[in-house]
Amino acid sequence: MRxxxxxxxxxQALWLVNxxxxxxxxxxxxxxxxxPAAWAPDGKTVLYLSFSDDRAQLNAIREITPDLNTDKLVSxxxxxxxxxxxxxxxxxxxxxxxxxxxxxxLLLRVTHRxxxxxxxxxxxxxxxxxxxxxxxxxxxxxxxxxxxxAIYDMHIEKMVEKIDDDSQN
Length: 169
Fold this sequence. Notes:
mainly beta, 4-stranded antiparallel beta sheet, Methylamine Dehydrogenase, Chain H
């Protein structure tokens, strides 16, 4: 949806560059470390996880609008270390890094509320990388909870509204 490439330098900054290599610039982001980041499907914003340097603070999902050079809080999370979103970015799925509660959670953008779906029990929560199916009726994630890496899926059709193919136009 854009002729620009988003990239990051370690966990310190997000950068944007035109596909021809011109206009390489850093994006204005919140203080702290940068986690996973991805373009929203409409190509207008970038959603990313922000990790505070203060371990007592919660991680947060933030949204950058590069054309306006603005960064805003979407929602605080219960220590998401990986996340993804449905096609209209109204629902997020995240993997918690909390070793006492290694869970997969849904977060509703409108209410900022989380719902626990299951435990991932991965040895490294960063490997879990949960994602939605295109119609937002399933979630897929990876875990080595049984000794070897495997992909798991979970039906969520009773919790998240189905997104039809024609709704993306």
